[in-house]
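Deviation from plan, reported transparently: pyridoxal-5'-phosphate complex.
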Amino acid sequence: MRRNLDTVFIMRRDINKYGFSTRAVHAGEEPNYAEGATGDVISPLHLTTTYAWHNPSKPVSEYDYVRSSNPTRGAYETKLAAIEYVKYGLAFASGMAAENAVLQALTSTGDHIIGFDDLYGGTRRLFDKVYTNLAISYIDLNNLALFEATVRPETKIVWIESPTNPLTKICDIAAVAEIAHKHGLIVVVDNTFLSPYFMKPAALGADIIVHSTTKYIGGHSDVLGGAVLTSDDELYEKIKAIQNNCGAVLSPFDSYLNMRGIKTLSVRMEQHQRNAFAIARFLESHPKVNKVLYPGLESHPQHELIKRQASGFGGMLSFELKGELEDAERVMNKLVLFVTAESLGGVESLIELPVKMTHVHVDKSVRDAIGITDTLMRVSVGIEDAKDLIADLEQALGELRTKS
Ligand SMILES: Cc1ncc(COP(=O)(O)O)c(C=O)c1O
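Because the crystal trials were delayed, the predicted structure below was used instead.
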């Protein structure tokens, strides 16, 4: 029996009244019950690059060419906006393409940007090596007096990450946004690490949220992608124009895969976090471990701050071994379940050594100054059984004990 269209579209009209997991499953995916429609329960994958016209004055639909818009990407962008609790979503071919679109759309020569001093290295590279026409200041944004003193008449954007990588520094987003808005700055928050499941930066004052969807949103280490989210009509129009004119769009197939990923984001994030807690506590009590950086631990210096602005702590942690670089390498070489790899946010547990991998290009003096030591390892905790992950770490750390 067919339901009538009014019943069907109630969900679409009211998606904003639903909770996160309901949005993640249903936003952008309402079945089409119209006469003659197939009634797909999930949003179908549209692979066509171009769309027919009845005649040169009359296109068949609102679509004409895939770079400008595509039903699958559109559905995915609707889902992204719904889970970030904003009006608009824009999907890009990578996190860096998303960040580039923001900068291209909103800055011009001579503008100044203020960035958190522990931003993702690729973001710093984009600022420093590509946007050489801009002035950039990297500062500790938790020093609010310093932040306000750094603002210049030509400052356009403040760029935040929280927690940062690999040091898990937290930024007080609401406090920074309040000062930023007083001075007419645009607040950009990279929400890759916590994902919208654990933090909604728009509610804290972010004007724009960016993601490397390659991480938790895709969630399975198999889709490169990025996103820009906003509720501001003008910002959206400017960034959408760059998306269409420059063309770094996400493909329909990758949009389809990420929609699939988002449906399980809440259950994945809960399991990532449960496992991260178990591992953090195990490591904290291990005699060979010097310190553990996980914002969920009460020992984390900004534990209270993250509790105020997020509903969880995520699945990323770092820990520092007692010993030398070779000890860290020995432990990593002994791990069986943890894969040594640079990315994060997938269902499988990954481990990396920042001084030799993600942060090898950061000057040693800078690394030392901010605390990226030779034995600091970063873990992207997966959704496996916690006891298996802990047993793996235990045997690898045990190797160290017998050698020392
Ligand atoms: C916090 C953060 N932002 C942005 C990016 C860039 O994203 P992508 O690799 O998808 O271009 C990354 C990649 O690691 C990241 O960790």
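Residues 94-96, 120, 122-123, 161, 165, 190, 192, 212, 214, 224, 226 surround pyridoxal-5'-phosphate (CB under 6 Å). We consider this an acceptable substitute for the interim report.
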